[in-house]
């Protein structure tokens, strides 16, 4: 397999974890994302906890698996088994809740410590429909995100704002990371190391390759 | 094959009789047990009719001696009660062998249950613990549990802490012998020599019959000539057979060389040959050889080539392959399986003295002593027998006693049955001497003997190391099997067929191994299981709210539950997990459990708000409910099961739904484990 470039006969599989406190609206965020893009058959019966989505980005097929995690403090210790092997993390806070932003900072620290820079981080301020009650300033949030190498987004699950962009952007970044990794691997000698990382490059079956639609269409 | 070594059986019986005659000191109970033992062996060999007679003989002996004792010298027999019990059990077994007799001939054996044949003797592979009998439970699918051991639902007993429970597993050589039994069954062709000896047998019979028919006077004169002609005929037959066999062998050898070259050509690309490559070549040669002898692989290949898009053909081929025990893939599977079991056995068959308060019971040491005894040689193991009946007797009945004390509310009859099976198992173990002709086995055996003292000192760290090594072995074994499979059938080398192949291979590979594998995991995760158990006891009557389930996600009104508890269906589903013996199926079970939880949650939330749309639950809600379900499941071994699944889940499933469900299950279990220490501050957290 040629490194990096080329035709759309590859499928990327990415795992994305959703982190954030219990009341910040992770579940509605993800439900909203699916509701818009997909008919029901793409949503597993686990509904809002685990879902997969197939995307087509610049001619490349991407399988996205979104893992929701429990936000309660008492489950915090269980985080590592959820986020291991993740390619991306979406860290959600509630812009009206300063405390939830602090929690995001804790997550960032932990993720960087455990997974290094390989994981693409998105910090998401949700509930921008409640702008009047904002307790986390835009400057502070964006400044912080930049300082830790994460992207910052503002969303509203209620108004369906910013969600599409968030996921699309994240996917593109994860693809870049994966391609960079491939190139690095291609330069090295062997690629047979069976790492348990989530990026898998699978040779496509020919029939599906033709079904490629526009950017980010539902396959 | 071994369960009915006629010669051995005869020796056993003769020893029995001579001892009964000579030894005035042999107690009637012992004698009765000897007979019972013979019966069990016969039963194991599917000789139900003879077994039935032996059981009756044992009963007859018991009643006779008890009657005699009762009528004349009263009270000389001390173990009256025990003897009566034995008689009762023999009667039970006689009944079942009577049924078994009626059902003959035995139904064909499918590969996935390779042990049915011998199941009866192994009704026995029973949980025996020092000082306690763990009854065969639904969550403890003991290796080779026979038809009599259909798990009794609702008969669950949780491990008590510090018990150092040991499930008695079959020694590796028996494990292997069952694999062999099975493959021999399918081999029906006789070699020329065998054919000749059959023919000679007939000639001899004819000769004897003819001689008997002759009047005595004539017989004397004709006998010599008849004998000579018989001898000549027999000799001729043998010589012809020998020549034929040699020719055949030469031909086979030539063919083998030819095929070997073919195999070498196929792998010619690689320059230097590693040991693995060499092995692969040999295996491939075997495959080619097999295909010369059998037509079915060609037929399937042609068929698949004709209809490449037919998935049923692929699964048909795979199941066909699995049902051919003499195909090189299956031979390799058995060999690898045996290798793994051989590594597992010394560890899982020994109890770790986890609790110093609990001294080692004599049963254990006596057993190991006698076992090593029986390994050495036959004559010695015969000696072992004579002393064994005494020992085993005491052990089995003391087990019985202790079990009754510990579990006084348990049904009495069950314990008794166990004690008998305990004994039976013990007796069977004694009779399994290693097959002497097989150098492989004896080698493994000696290795095993060396390991024994070591094993007892194994500490947790070593256990973990061992576990790691075995897990790695299994991964390698599966890879090896898959590659040989794809080598044999190139048509299977597509993504979807490969998945199917792996699934089938794994199922065949894991099924007989899982219980021993799980036993090792349980040893390693013992602490975690104990924590789980403590939480389980503490939260026995907890409501979902107590573990943090949002109140809208379960009905407060008990009437709504129709006498059961919330999420009952998910609990029932999860309990089934331990019944499967294959990782893939277990994973599917976990996925089903989570889906049931989601379905239940939706139903319950509809009860609360009539107007609510679909109530999709996120992880915030899922995890507390899953914890509640795990608590109610009351199976501490879930901890070990999931730890094992974690090791054997496929990479492809890791980030999929299966992976998510397993991860959630693991988290819920960890949370439950932490409950009893209060480490998670149950009540002061806020949750939505």
Automatic annotation (TrEMBL), chain A:
Cellular localization per UniProt: Cleavage furrow; Endoplasmic reticulum membrane
Keyword presence, Membrane: yes
Coiled-coil region(s): none
GO cellular component, one term: cleavage furrow
Region listing for Disordered, in residue ranges: 181-203
Main location: other
Name of one Pfam family that matches: Ras
CDD domains: Rab21
InterPro entries per the UniProt record, alphabetical: P-loop_NTPase, Rab21, Small_GTP-bd, Small_GTPase
Membrane topology: Lipid-anchor
Alphabetic keyword roster: GTP-binding, Lipoprotein, Membrane, Nucleotide-binding, Prenylation, Protein transport, Transport
Compositionally skewed regions (Polar residues) per UniProt: 188-197
Gene Ontology molecular function terms on file: GTP binding; GTPase activity
SMART domains, A to Z: RAB, RAN, RAS, RHO
BP terms from Gene Ontology: protein transport; Rab protein signal transduction
NCBIfam families, A to Z: small_GTP
Family: Belongs to the small GTPase superfamily. Rab family.
Protein name: Ras-related protein Rab-21
From TrEMBL, chain B:
Record's GO cellular component terms: cytosol; endocytic vesicle
SMART domains reported for this sequence: VPS9
Domain annotation VPS9: ranges: 526-681
Entry-linked Pfam families: VPS9 (PF02204)
Gene Ontology biological-process entries: vesicle-mediated transport
Compositionally biased tracts (Polar residues): 364-385
Annotated spans, Disordered: 138-158, 352-385
Single GO MF descriptor: guanyl-nucleotide exchange factor activity
This protein's name: VPS9 domain containing 1
Listed PANTHER family: RAB GDP/GTP EXCHANGE FACTOR, VPS9 DOMAIN-CONTAINING PROTEIN 1
Superkingdom as given in the UniProt entry: Eukaryota
């Amino acid at each position: 397999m040629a490194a990096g470039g080329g035709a759309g006969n590859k499928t990327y599989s990415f795992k994305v974890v959703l982190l954030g406190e219990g009341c910040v609206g992770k579940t509605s965020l993800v439900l909203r994302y699916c509701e818009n893009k997909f008919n029901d058959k793409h949503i597993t019966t686990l509904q809002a906890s685990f879902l997969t989505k197939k995307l087509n980005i610049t001619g490349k097929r991407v399988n996205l698996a979104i893992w929701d995690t429990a936000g309660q403090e008492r489950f915090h210790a269980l985080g590592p088994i959820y986020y291991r092997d993740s390619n991306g993390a979406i860290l959600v806070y509630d812009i009206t809740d300063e405390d939830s932003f602090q929690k995001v900072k804790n997550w960032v620290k932990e993720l960087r410590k455990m997974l290094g820079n390989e994981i693409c981080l998105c910090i998401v301020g949700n509930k921008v429909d409640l702008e009047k009650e904002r307790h986390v300033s835009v400057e502070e949030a964006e400044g912080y995100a930049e300082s830790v190498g994460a992207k910052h987004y503002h969303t509203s699950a209620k108004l369906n704002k910013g969600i599409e962009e968030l996921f699309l952007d994240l996917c593109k970044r994860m693809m870049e990371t994966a391609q960079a990794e491939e190139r690095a691997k291609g330069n090295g000698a062997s690629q047979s190391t069976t790492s348990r990382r989530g990026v898998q490059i699978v040779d496509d079956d020919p029939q599906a390759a033709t079904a490629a639609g526009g950017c980010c269409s539902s396959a | 094959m071994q369960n009915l070594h006629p010669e051995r059986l005869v020796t056993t019986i003769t020893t029995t009789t001579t001892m009964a005659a000579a030894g005035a000191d042999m107690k009637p109970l012992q004698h009765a047990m000897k007979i019972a033992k013979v019966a069990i062996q016969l039963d194991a060999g599917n000789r139900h009719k003879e077994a039935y007679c032996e059981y009756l003989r044992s009963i007859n002996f018991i009643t006779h001696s008890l009657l005699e004792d009762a009528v004349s010298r009263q009270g000389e027999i001390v173990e009256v009660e025990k003897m009566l019990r034995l008689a009762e059990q023999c009667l039970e077994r006689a009944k079942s062998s009577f049924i078994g007799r009626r059902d003959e001939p035995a139904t064909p054996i499918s590969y996935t249950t390779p042990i049915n044949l011998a199941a009866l003797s192994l009704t026995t592979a029973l949980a025996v613990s020092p000082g306690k009998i763990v009854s065969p439970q639904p969550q403890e699918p003991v290796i080779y549990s026979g038809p009599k051991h259909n798990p009794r639902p609702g008969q669950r007993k949780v491990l008590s802490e510090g018990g150092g429970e040991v499930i008695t597993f079959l020694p590796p050589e028996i494990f292997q012998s069952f694999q062999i039994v099975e493959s021999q069954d399918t081999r029906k062709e006789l070699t020329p020599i065998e054919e000749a000896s059959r023919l000679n047998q007939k000639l001899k019979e004819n000769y004897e019959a003819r001689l008997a028919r002759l009047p005595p006077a004539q017989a004397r004169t004709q006998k010599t000539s008849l004998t000579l002609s018989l001898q000549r005929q027999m000799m001729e037959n043998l010589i012809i057979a020998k020549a034929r066999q040699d020719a055949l062998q030469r031909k086979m050898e030539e063919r083998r060389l030819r095929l070997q070259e073919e195999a070498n050509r196929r792998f010619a690309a690689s320059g230097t040959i590693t040991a693995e490559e060499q092995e692969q070549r040999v295996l491939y040669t075997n495959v080619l050889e097999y295909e010369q002898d059998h037509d079915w692989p060609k037929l399937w290949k042609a068929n698949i080539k004709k209809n490449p898009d037919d998935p049923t053909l692929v699964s048909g081929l795979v199941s066909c392959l699995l049902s051919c025990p003499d195909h090189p893939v299956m031979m390799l599977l058995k060999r690898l399986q045996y290798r793994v079991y051989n590594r597992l056995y010394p560890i899982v068959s020994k109890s770790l003295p986890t609790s110093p308060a609990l001294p080692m019971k004599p049963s254990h040491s006596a057993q190991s002593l006698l076992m090593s005894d029986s390994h050495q040689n036959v004559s010695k193991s015969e000696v072992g027998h004579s002393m064994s009946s005494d020992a085993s007797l005491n052990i089995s009945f003391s087990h019985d006693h202790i079990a009754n004390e510990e579990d006084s509310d348990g049904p009495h009859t069950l314990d008794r049955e166990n004690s008998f099976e305990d004994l039976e198992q013990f007796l069977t173990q004694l009779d399994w001497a290693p097959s002497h002709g097989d150098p492989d086995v004896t080698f493994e055996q000696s290795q095993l003997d060396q390991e024994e003292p070591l094993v007892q000192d194994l500490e947790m760290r070593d256990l973990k190391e061992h576990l790691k090594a075995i897990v790695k072995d299994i991964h390698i074994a599966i890879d090896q099997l898959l590659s040989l499979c794809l080598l044999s059938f190139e048509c299977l080398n597509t993504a979807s067929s490969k998945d199917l192949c792996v699934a089938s291979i794994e199922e065949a590979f894991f099924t007989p191994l899982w219980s021993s594998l799980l036993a090792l995991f349980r040893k390693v995760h013992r602490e975690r299981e104990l924590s789980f158990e403590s939480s389980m006891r503490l939260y026995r009557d907890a409501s979902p709210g107590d573990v943090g389930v949002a109140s809208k996600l379960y009905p407060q009104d008990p009437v709504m539950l129709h006498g059961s508890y919330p999420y009952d269906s998910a609990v029932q589903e999860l309990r089934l997990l331990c019944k499967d013996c294959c990782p893939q199926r277990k994973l599917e079970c976990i996925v089903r459990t989570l889906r049931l939880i989601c379905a239940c949650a939706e139903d319950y939330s509809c009860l609360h708000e009539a107007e609510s749309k679909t109530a999709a639950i996120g992880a915030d809600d899922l995890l507390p409910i899953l914890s509640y379900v795990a608590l109610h499941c009351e199976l501490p071994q879930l901890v070990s099961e999931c730890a094992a699944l974690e090791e054997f889940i496929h990479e492809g499933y890791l980030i999929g739904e299966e992976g998510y469900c397993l991860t959630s299950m693991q988290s819920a279990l960890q949370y439950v484990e932490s409950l009893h220490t209060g480490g998670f501050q149950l009540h002061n957290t806020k949750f939505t």
